[in-house]
UniProtKB/TrEMBL annotation:
PANTHER family: MURAMOYLTETRAPEPTIDE CARBOXYPEPTIDASE, MUREIN TETRAPEPTIDE CARBOXYPEPTIDASE. It holds the Pfam family Peptidase_S66C. The lineage of its organism: Bacteria, Bacillati, Actinomycetota, Actinomycetes, Streptosporangiales. Belongs to the peptidase S66 family. Residues 228-252 are annotated as: Disordered. This is LD-carboxypeptidase. Residues 116-227 form the LD-carboxypeptidase C-terminal domain. One of its GO terms (molecular function) is serine-type peptidase activity.
Length: 252
């Protein structure tokens, strides 16, 4: 009721979720989607839904059913509650909420290249949980996919990626940006999983994007135009541009 009332209130420009956790998927069946769509259409300025982690369920449903862009980023009960939140985290949040481009640097490219398209994705475990439901994420064809998660072992991440692959969800994806994988095991093992499962797609894959559950949580606008660049790291190459691993840029 609180979510419905806040979104449908014409005085409200943004609905900011206090935290993630568990249970957002249960909310979906209790929302009046016609009323939510009418409120979005009637608003003079685009309404914003902001949150991350479990809120991926709401991002996916709002984006698909209402056709709105949504804001995936830090929440008040998370890193924003710290005495001194990371400066880049705050700057990216302001840009997403009040306008302006956002650039998120990656740490390394698992497969080099360049991709453009609307940004989609979110927390991996939520995306897979929505498959086969009326709120399933739309196919990633032509889109730049962002994925992240927390406290999921590499074998579980492998299994979820296989599920999405077998469902055909990744078919035609333009590129993939991998965010933080906090407490998800050995980073080298994770990279091996990503390379094995995502490499055969033949699209650029950029890892280490500071978004998700890490100490730096830059804000992503799901549904916004995105440009992903992933360059092979080659410290011994004399050309200065080559060592740059790449970035994910969201256009205002």
């Amino acid at each position: 009721a609180d979510l419905q009332d806040a979104w449908c209130d014409p005085r409200v420009r943004a609905v900011v979720c206090a935290r993630g956790g568990y249970g957002a998927t249960r909310v979906l069946d209790h929302l009046d989607w016609d009323a939510l769509a009418a409120a979005a259409d009637a608003s003079a300025e685009p309404k914003i839904l902001h949150g991350s982690s479990d809120i991926t369920a709401l991002h996916t449903a709002f984006g698909t059913r209402l056709g709105v862009t949504t804001s995936f980023g830090p929440m008040p009960a998370g890193v924003l509650a710290e005495d001194r939140p990371d400066g880049d985290t705050l700057a990216a949040l302001r840009a997403a909420l009040f306008g302006g481009p956002v650039t998120l640097p990656g740490t390394h490219a698992l497969r080099p290249g360049r991709a453009e398209g609307p940004l989609t994705g979110g927390t991996l475990s939520l995306l897979t949980a929505l498959l086969g439901t009326p709120y399933a994420p739309p196919p990633a064809a032509g889109r730049v996919v962002f994925l992240e998660d927390v406290t999921e072992a590499p074998y579980r991440i492998d299994r979820m990626l296989v599920q999405l692959l077998q469902a055909g969800w990744f078919d035609g994806a333009a590129g993939i940006a991998l965010g933080s994988w906090r407490d998800c095991g050995d980073p080298a093992e994770l990279d091996a999983v990503f390379a094995a499962r995502l490499g055969p797609l033949g699209v650029p894959v950029l890892a280490g994007v500071p978004a998700g559950h890490g100490p730096r949580q830059l804000t992503l606008e799901l549904g916004a135009p995105a440009v992903l660049t992933a360059s092979p790291r080659s410290p011994h190459d004399p050309r200065p541009a080559v060592p740059e691993p790449g970035a994910l840029t969201l256009e205002a």
